[in-house]
Amino acid sequence: MIEILTTGLPNTVQDLGRPGHLALGVSHGGAMDKQALAIANLMLGNDPSAAGIEVTLHPFRLRAHIDTAVAITGADCAVSIGDRPCPPWWAMTIRAGETLVLEAPRAGARSYIAFAGGIDLPPVMGSRATDVKGGFGGFAGRGLSRGDRLALKPAQCRLPAGGIGAALEERRGAADALASAIELRVLPAAEFDAFTPEAQAAFTGSEWRITDDANRMGYRLAGETLSLLSPLELLSHGIVPGTVQVPPSGQPIIQLADANTCGGYPKIATVIEADLWRLAQAPVGARLRFSAVSIKASTEALRANRQQSHDFIAARNLMAGEQRTP
Questions:
Q1: Most CB within 10 Å of its CB: which of 57, 84, 190, 275?
Q2: Which secondary-structure segment (H or E) carries 93?
């Protein structure tokens, strides 16, 4: 059992989502940074899809009421367990009565906390992910509040005295995310050719800023106005996380984990799946740049992304031993 001490409503229980229900109007949902949650689970010997906590609003504090093990991944933030500092992307034991604290991130936007065995909540449509928009899943279909108590599944997880950690080469530059624009690879979407040549060039040739109108459903961007060749009327059509729609304002909206399942705005591009974690870790105010890639390059990037998880399962990218300093 764990007890929430300090939190905000954007913080929710998430797993890897609830695929297969788009036809029913149910979003895929799940963790915004699915790789971070999956690797946190793998460090503890869990199934990658075990339910954990997605922390968007820091600081965050919880108390353990049993001896267990936790793993913290995602944003680069100061973490402590009791009086012990815990480095980023690290798994450690936590004893009954100890408090886990996550401070505001130095870089990144979302932290993930996995627990040995995973959070034990009843699945809804095959998932424990919280769908706040629909009011189901997770903990009573809502964000976490102070005093909430979450049960954990029984588990046997033995860690070295100093814990165990993970190293991801592609995330080493996360601290510089605000110093330079975040590069996102995209594929052209169905209505790409309906935009003017100037709009097409501006989309990949200029920088975009994430406005404060940003949440798990999507990020509204600010930048050059993107114009169509002529007025376009579309029936609502299916959209997925990563879809970049352009409303009449000409300012793009990137659909994310809790996006609606369909929409009628023209689509100029889709962020490739392998780069969605970069969006998840991009805070409000961050600058973005888009670069067009081929389907082959997109597939290879996704394969490389997934290979990292397989490497973790094989323990090739795990570091065990004495605790590092943050």
A1: 275
A2: strand 90-94
